Amino acid sequence: MTQQVLTEIQDGVIIIRLNRADKKNALTGEMYNGISDALDQLERDNSLRVGLITGTPDCFTAGNDLVDFMKGGSITGNSPVGRFLATIPVLTKPLVAAVNGPAVGVGTTMLLHCDLVYAAPGAKFQMPFINLGLCPEAGSSLLLPQLVGYRRATELLMLCDAFTADEAKDMGIVNAVLPADQYQQHALDQAKRLARQPPSSIRAAKKLMRRASQEALKSVMAEEARLFTEMLDGGEAKEAFAAFFEKRKPDFSKF
Ligand code: COA
């Protein structure tokens, strides 16, 4: 079977590549665990200084696998999603992302935990949790309003408006938009620059810059995970998932 997450090490950077192109890199339990394993390796190994997460050249990720969500499941505790969501906000070393094509759901919200984000013009972001009868996750209910303001966040989280790479740059969600044949190399070059900086200073800077939101983030993420897991089992989500696979519009009128 093809490995759904590939890792490679270059000059102190661990590159984490999502590799399930036929399903738009939709994240399975195996993939969440693969990413978490790589992030754990980054934290443990002194010779590793920076993580870089990317997808296939024209797709970052379509978010959580909806077949898995249809089976119910959980994003709390020891589930693979829960493990990933517990790992990414407390990383002490920098994480860089390189994004092209769809970055849906957690494909966008994980970027709020990254330290540098580079995108190609074809990147398309969306957080469709409410469209799916769910609620915001991965700390996005706190981090997004902080970053873009409450009213903009309402458009993105409640109306689930999709947005382009340029719009993401304007909102501060990505650092820069680069041509499709350059965005991955640029992200890697920037990751390698970070990897050459003094590591204790980098870790101190990250800790200090994230400190103000860290405590609040913990309790917000616990509440998000509780509600989200409850809603996964609800009628609105079941209708939304069925509609996706039946390629029709969901009907929420009966709820
Ligand atoms: N979970 C499971 N399968 C998914 C998926 C997901 N999140 N996203 C895409 N796929 C599958 C499709 O079912 C399709 O499978 P098939 O070829 O067996 O029919 C394949 O990946 C290609 O997807 P498709 O929708 O045909 O590609 P597209 O280029 O037209 O659209 C997206 C790409 C990402 C815009 C669209 O697939 C999409 O909206 N996906 C769902 C995103 C989502 O709601 N994620 C959950 C967030 S919480």
Would you kindly provide a written description of the structure presented here, covering whatever features stand out?
- The chain is α/β, with parallel strands linked by helices.
- It has a single domain, classed as 2-enoyl-CoA Hydratase, Chain A, domain 1.
- The strands form two sheets. It has a six-stranded mixed β-sheet, sandwiched between helices. Strands 5-7-8 form a three-stranded mixed β-sheet.
- A hairpin with a 2-residue loop joins strand 1 and strand 2.
- Helix 1 runs parallel beside helix 3 and helix 5 packs across helix 6.
- It starts with a strand and ends in a 10-residue tail after the last helix.
- The site of coenzyme A has 15 residues, from helix 2 and strand 5.
Q: Report the end-to-end length measured between terminal Cα atoms.
A: 41 Å
Shape: globular
Instruction: Give the biggest sheet.
Output: 6 strands, mixed
Highest-level CATH class: Alpha Beta
Work out the helicity level.
40-55%
Number of helices: 10
Order of helices and strands: EEHEHHEEHEEHHEHEHHH
Instruction: Indicate the proportion of strand residues.
Output: 5-15%
Query: CATH H-level name... which superfamily?
Result: 2-enoyl-CoA Hydratase, Chain A, domain 1
Uncertain stretches of 5 or more adjacent residues: none
- Average pLDDT, rounded to a whole number, is 97
Structural class: alpha/beta
CATH topological fold name: 2-enoyl-CoA Hydratase, Chain A, domain 1
Q: What's the count of strands? A: 9
Bound molecules: coenzyme A
Our Rg estimate from Cα atoms comes to 17 Å
Number of domains: 1
CATH architecture: Alpha-Beta Complex
Physical arrangement of strands within the biggest beta sheet: 1-2-3-4-6-9
